[in-house]
Automatic annotation (TrEMBL):
Top class in the EC scheme: ligase
Domain ATP-grasp: 111-319
Protein name: Phosphoribosylamine--glycine ligase
Family of the protein in this entry: Belongs to the GARS family.
């Protein structure tokens, strides 16, 4: 097969790394890719939201399978666009259409979806600029802390947890009246704060059948001890010690099955990944959010544990044949530490030379924000590298991943030194 993968982050490098191992993959293209994907595939200088250019690339390179990595093209309707091209209408695609991607594209839609199908989630109300006064009044009676979520896509940064009513009211004004997140915060979901421990469960579905992939826990805040602002993710661990077989069975029965049944009820043939962000509250799963694609950096710990031929798995998803696949998962633990640019998640510099990558031993160095130029690998994003280690114990995987983060060098480098330590303590 000739395969085209859309995206440019650590998730896409992990996908490309896994796809390139398959004997079914003749040629792999990534658009636009990064310095890491260039090592295992051919990068195409195409923006993943330039739909006509993507369609032209599919024709030019005789693509047999399209895999859409990021949320933005999914929510904007790339699958619908390709399906509308007469000559590409039957192309196998991994990724939902725009209607299915609304699970991620609109927090308000996903909340209503969960309520319709009895999926456990936190209580919430949605406000717009026209109902701002009602929202401010509602906050005065709300329990603390208060979660405020931009309705649309905000690059993983559209969630604010306010500790006081005054902070919540100021945030609501900023989001609705001040358009803090632009069009994404034209609606704001105000949600009950859940006390529990967070994890992510990933479902792969072909529209009829499904596989539950290895679960993961990610670390969203910039600072150790989960302090500071939210980021796109500073690290991840899989498997998760507090996700027992009993708990994961509850997730399947109370969340996964009703979600897939709800999609069918809504007339959505969903072929792709569903990322379920969960909180374990008193032993029960409660859904925080859905994403319409794999998580990043969770992909960088989930994919190394999947032992199947990944191209075969993707084609089975796109062609409605997942029932023919038996998922095989490594018992090893995978830990990734994300190394980020100085200043991230706020303003940060690009173009810093990355050195000592060649010194990494027994590590998967997934490139997130990198660029190859004049014989050097340069920083080209806020999250620069996801350094994944696998080992027979959580402690060893943590140690190896952190060692790799210390080894790699560039000006302004930052990383969290506590990835996975809470899970080691939990296990103890």
């Amino acid at each position: 097969m000739n395969i085209l993968l859309l995206g440019s982050g650590g998730r896409e490098h992990a996908f490309a790394w896994k796809l390139a191992q398959s004997p079914l993959c003749d040629t792999l293209f990534v658009a636009p890719g990064n310095a890491g994907t260039a090592q295992v595939a051919t990068n195409l200088p195409i923006g993943f939201s330039d739909f006509p250019a993507v369609a032209d690339a599919i024709r030019a390179h005789s693509i047999d399978l399209l895999i859409v990595g990021p949320e933005e093209p999914l929510v904007k309707g790339i699958v619908d666009f390709i399906r509308q091209q007469a000559d590409l209408s039957h192309l196998p695609i991994v990724g939902p259409d725009a209607k299915g991607a609304q699970l991620e594209g609109s927090k308000d839609y996903s909340k209503q979806f969960m309520q319709r199908y009895g999926i456990p989630t936190a209580s919430s109300q949605t406000f717009t600029v026209d109902t701002l006064t009602s929202g401010l009044n509602y906050l005065e009676t709300h329990s603390l802390p208060i979660v405020l979520k931009a309705d649309g896509l905000a690059a993983g940064k559209g969630v604010i947890i306010a500790d006081t009513v005054a902070e919540a009211q100021s945030t609501l004004r900023d989001m609705l009246d001040g358009q803090k997140f632009g069009e994404a915060s034209s609606k704001v979901v105000v949600e009950q704060f859940l006390r529990g421990i967070e994890l992510s469960v990933f479902v792969l579905t072909d529209g009829e059948n499904y596989k539950i992939l290895p679960e993961a826990k990610d670390y969203k805040r910039i600072g150790e001890g989960d302090t500071g602002p939210n980021t796109g993710g500073m690290g991840a661990v899989s498997p998760v010690v507090f996700a027992s077989e009993t708990f994961l069975r509850k997730v399947e029965e109370k969340v996964v099955k009703p979600t897939l049944a709800g999609l069918k009820q809504e007339g959505i043939r969903y072929q792709g990944f569903i990322f379920v962000g969960l909180m374990k509250v008193n032993g029960e799963p409660v859904v925080i959010e859905y994403n319409a694609r794999m998580g990043d950096p969770e992909t960088e710990v989930v994919l190394p544990r999947i032992q199947n031929d990944f191209a075969e798995l993707m084609m089975a998803t796109a062609s409605g044949e997942l029932n023919t696949i038996t998922l095989q998962v490594s018992p090893q633990t995978a830990v990734t530490t994300v190394v980020v640019a100085g200043g991230y998640p706020d303003a940060y510099e690009k173009g810093k030379v990355i050195s000592d990558l060649e010194r990494l031993d027994d590590i998967m160095a997934f490139h997130a924000g990198t660029l190859a130029k004049d014989g050097h690998v340069l920083t080209n994003g806020g999250r620069v590298l996801a350094l994944t280690a696998q080992a027979n114990s959580l402690e060893n995987a943590v140690r190896k991943s952190q060692e790799a983060a210390r080894t790699v060098q560039f000006d302004g480098k930052q990383y969290r030194k506590d990835i996975g330590l809470d899970l080691i303590r939990y296990a103890d």
